[in-house]
Write a structure and sequence with these properties.
Length: 247
């Protein structure tokens, strides 16, 4: 596991974008696993800028997203499909048909999940998977206590995750209680994993994920078992880990 410390969110975003861009340059037809949430927005902004300047092309890239809220249409203002369109896809030269996000309105969510894993396999697997990290150590929507052996599946969101996402909705009651999410098994199948973490409020979770035992109570801790993980974090997010190392 490689940990890269950056001074702040802006430098973290630029460094993470550079790692993604390097993967695209190395393998123009690569499969990128993409994440939503506030942390990757800065990295996506850098990629959009470089693509607009002609320094980077996504013309051959295929993408698969980690998750989607169950019950939200792709056009809903808080759907992850719309997030990706607004923050990345609409501003780069990726082929629309090559972007894949789980269908939150699927008639049979379990079938949708099974077919998503089949899709990933048909693409040859994920070359680089981008992840954020939740306050409770969740990755994608894999909550504490979830089985590490699960592929893409239907998830019941924890109260803490619902609270964290409440700011994006008019009220807490409007936050979906379920989502479709790649499972730990799906994520760990990626050839490379890139984790972006920002802010002091994530420092405890990051420390537990990196230096604590591998346990499903801290889902991100399973990344210790992956052969190629890079964590790019700002100094605030690394504060607890660094304090422990200095003792």
């Amino acid at each position: 596991m490689r940990i890269i410390e950056c001074a702040d969110y802006k430098s973290m975003s630029r460094r993470a974008a550079g790692i993604i861009a390097a993967q695209v340059v190395l393998k123009p037809e690569c499969v990128l696993g993409l994440a939503t949430g506030s942390t990757p927005v800065g990295a996506y902004g850098e990629l959009v800028k470089w693509c607009g300047q002609g320094d980077l092309s996504f013309a051959g890239v295929r993408s698969v997203n980690l998750d989607e809220y169950l019950g939200l249409a792709p056009t809903h203002e808080q759907s992850y499909r719309r997030f990706m369109q607004e923050n990345l896809f609409d501003h780069i030269d990726i082929v629309p048909e090559n972007t894949h996000v789980l269908n939150g309105l699927a008639e049979n969510p379990e079938t949708e999940c099974a077919q998503y894993d089949e899709l990933i396999a048909s693409l040859g697997g994920i070359d680089l998977q981008l992840l954020g990290m939740g306050h409770n150590g969740h990755i994608a929507f894999n909550e504490p206590g979830d089985d590490f052996g699960l592929g893409t599946h239907v998830v019941s969101l924890s109260e803490r995750t619902i609270d964290a996402n409440q700011r994006f909705f008019a009220s807490r009651d409007e936050v979906p209680r379920h989502a479709l999410s790649m499972g730990i098994k799906s994520i760990m199948g990626a050839r490379k994993i890139l984790v972006v973490v920002s802010g002091a409020d994530k420092a405890d979770a990051l420390c537990r994920a990196v230096s604590g035992p591998v346990t499903n109570e801290v889902p991100a801790s399973v990344l210790q078992l992956h052969p190629d993980v890079t964590i790019v974090a700002d100094s605030a997010a690394l504060s607890v880990l660094k304090a422990g190392e200095s003792r």
